[in-house]
Design brief:
Structural class: mainly alpha
Low-confidence stretches: 1-5
Strand order of the largest sheet: 1-2
Helix content: over 70%
Largest sheet: 2 strands, antiparallel
Oligomer: single chain
Mean pLDDT: 90
Radius of gyration: 21 Å
Order of helices and strands: EHHEHHHHHHHHH
């Protein structure tokens, strides 16, 4: 499937100037990856195991945890290979495949966060109709639509990379990104410059706007509730999701601005923002939901009972 005029592999890059201590740098990465697998794996298990969590809200949380695990599994092999083993080479097919899954899963995560906002809106705005609107078949259709949008929409620019001759094969990260590979092409890259901008506008930007509009309507509904206790309860149900939305979109905006407008920014800024974007949301999401969601807390306590003396 993946072909190019030049079959030479790409060379991944770790932390320039710090190659001698890459094995030490890999230790915090290993700890973060372990935490991501443990946190998101725990969420997946308890949602599947605890029948009280078999509700639309937790199905979407299940999708979020699965997406975070998928993103981590996509980037981790090359990151640790470069830092631990100094294995920089990656075949073009593997590079393009990794780039495809990285960008597809990022779009999927944005879609899942949008679906979770819709879930909160229905739960607060029309609670009596919640169970009749978000039935299991509807949740499955929404989930399938999110997956299709992510995996199909990113195909055109990634496929286009396969036919670009490259003037260089040295990438600037420990994983393959579309924009990173695109910069190495010595061909007309107009399509690969324009299409991603349109795609970002129709996915991340549009999703963020709809989420913002949803919460404006949610806030309006909450303000109409007479009981202060019920208002507080309604707000608390949204805190976890709002936190995850902020964590995800702030890192997306930061990475986008660095790639688009930070051409003269120090290399360390580029590399740090990319790691923050791909590691911080998967690391934080299970922590946020474990702290802020009582049902998740109860399930975790049942899974890991604390023995008191």
């Amino acid at each position: 499937m993946w072909t190019n005029n030049s079959a030479a592999p790409f060379l991944l890059t770790g932390f320039l100037g710090s190659e001698a201590i890459h094995h030490w740098i890999s230790i915090p990465f290993f700890i973060i990856y372990f935490s991501i697998f443990f946190g998101n794996g725990t969420l997946l298990f308890i949602i599947q195991d605890d029948h009280s969590l078999h509700e639309p809200m937790y199905y979407f949380l299940d999708m979020l945890a699965g997406t975070d695990l998928g993103m981590t599994l996509t980037t981790m092999p090359t990151v640790l290979a470069v830092l631990l083993l100094n294995r920089r080479e990656i075949a073009q097919g593997a590079c393009f495949t990794q780039s495809y899954f990285i960008h597809a899963l990022a779009i999927i995560e944005s879609g899942v966060l949008l679906a979770m906002a819709y879930d909160h809106f229905i739960a607060i705005h029309t609670p009596l109709r919640y169970n009749s609107i978000l039935i299991n078949s509807q949740v499955m259709k929404v989930g399938l639509g999110i997956l299709m949008r992510g995996f199909v929409s990113i195909l055109p620019p990634i496929l286009q990379l396969c036919w670009f001759p490259c003037r260089s094969h040295v990438l600037s990260h420990t994983f393959c990104l579309h924009q990173d590979v695109m910069k190495l092409a010595c061909a007309d890259i107009t399509f690969n410059c324009i299409y991603p901008v349109i795609l970002v506008a129709l996915t991340y930007f549009l999703d963020a706007l709809i989420i913002l509009f949803s919460y404006i309507l949610i806030l309006k509904t909450i303000m109409g509730i007479a009981s202060a206790e019920e208002q507080t309860k309604a707000i608390n149900t949204c805190v976890s999701h709002i936190s995850c939305v902020l964590v995800f979109y702030i890192t997306v905006i930061g990475l986008t601005f660095i790639h688009r407008f930070g051409k003269h920014a120090p290399y360390v800024v580029h590399i740090t923002m990319s790691y923050v974007h791909f590691l911080f949301p998967p690391f934080m999401n299970p922590i946020i939901y474990s702290i802020k969601t009582k049902q998740i807390q109860r399930s975790i306590v049942r899974l890991f009972p604390v023995q008191r003396a």
